Amino acid sequence: MGGALVLCFALFFFGKTVPPKKDAPSAESAQPHEHQTVTFETLLEQAKKQISPEQSIRLAKLENAVVRGDIKDQQLHVYHQLARFWADSAHIFEPYAYYTGEAAKLENSEKSLTFAAHLFLRNLETEEQPAIQNWLAGNAKVLFEKALAINPANDSSKIGLGACYIFGHISENPMEGILPIREIVQKNPDNLYAQMVLGLGGRKSGQYDKAIERFKIVVEKQPDNLEAVFNLAECYDMTGDKANAIKWYSTAKELVKLPEAQKELDKRITELRK
Predict the structure, then answer these.
(1) What is d(CA 169, CA 165) in angstroms, rounded to the nearest whole number?
(2) What is the pLDDT of residues 42-99, one digit of tens each?
(3) How far apart are CA 95 and CA 82, in angstroms?
(4) What is the Cα–Cα distance from 57 to 229, expressed in whole angstroms?
(5) CA 2 – CA 18 distance, rounded (Å)
(6) Phi, psi angles (nearest 5°) of residue 243
(7) Which of 50, 108, 113, 266 reaches 20 to 30 Å from 4, CA-CA?
């Protein structure tokens, strides 16, 4: 499948307050990668090279305020300011997410922790660099674990935590993430978030038949779920089932609103009909 179409759909599925990642690796167990990591300090250094001198001055003031702020409420306020700076002024995701996560840890409410965790997770699903995948997953994992300490019964947080293992290369055994999600699905087959994550995991590991089963469950319950429809089309495409690939790409075209994506879908459908 062409990268242009994947990028268009990444924009549609994971619309963010900052520019999206390049391409979306979607997939049920992670493929082996060399252990690659990156630190926030490195990402921050790279981000600072992309901002203007005026923004650098403003940022320095905010960072100094964090050092001086020895009261929790002061630090929380500055973390929120730093997050807004990187989102609204600089438009760079990684420091935005990091400071949102730091603020959530200080606030320590289930709502703030899960919001920040899902922020990392959404970008994890569209990030293609293993080192950054690992960084995103590691941050999301910590936040989900803190949220689950507050509310151990939150299935959404359990699924999010499992997704960190599936997509983030944070364990040599991705089954650590898959098994808890499967348990949730066995208990509640109508948990479509769990079905979707397992479908994406199957796609990632090349288990396209299993992924198709998961995506079909989602589409049956949510016919307008564009992400599930598109992934279903791609899985049929990957298995060489042209008829079903055309069917679901056509359905995706009816649902998508992005002209660029519609154009790429038309192109792929035409290629499959040859």
Answers:
(1) 6
(2) 999 999 999 999 999 999 999 988 766 568 888 899 999 999 999 999 999 999 999 9
(3) 8
(4) 46
(5) 24
(6) -60, -50
(7) 50
CB 255 within 8 A of CB 226: yes
Work out the average pLDDT over 11-40: 49
Amino acid present at 28: E
**pLDDT for the residue 260:** 87
What is the second-level CATH architecture of the domain 1-16+189-274? Alpha Horseshoe (1.25)
Phi-psi domain of 108 (left: phi exceeds 0; alpha: psi -120 through 50; beta: other):
left
Cα 148 from Cα 155, distance rounded (Å) = 9
> From CA 176, how far away is CA 167, in angstroms rounded?
12
Contact (CB, 8 A) for 194 and 159:
yes
Using CA atoms, how far apart are residues 90 and 71, in angstroms rounded to an integer? 27
Domain 51-181 sits in CATH 1.25.40: yes
Tens of pLDDT, residue by residue over 224-256, are 999 999 999 999 999 999 999 999 999 999 999
Alpha carbon dihedral 232, 235, 239, 245, in 10-degree steps, equals: 40
Q: Which of 226, 224, 270, 263 is nearest to 246 (CA)?
A: 270
**What pLDDT was estimated at residue 3?**
47
Residue extents of the structural domains in the chain: 1-16+189-274, 51-181
Taking alpha carbons only, the member of 105, 92, 171 closest to residue 138 is 171
| Polymer length in residues for the chain | 274
Between CA 133 and CA 75 the distance in angstroms is: 28
Cα gap 116→143, rounded to integer Å? 7
Give me 219's structure tokens: 């589409």
| Residues whose CB falls within 8 Å of the CB of residue 28, separated by 6 or more in sequence, listed in order | 166, 178, 198, 199, 200, 201, 202, 203, 204, 205, 207, 210, 211
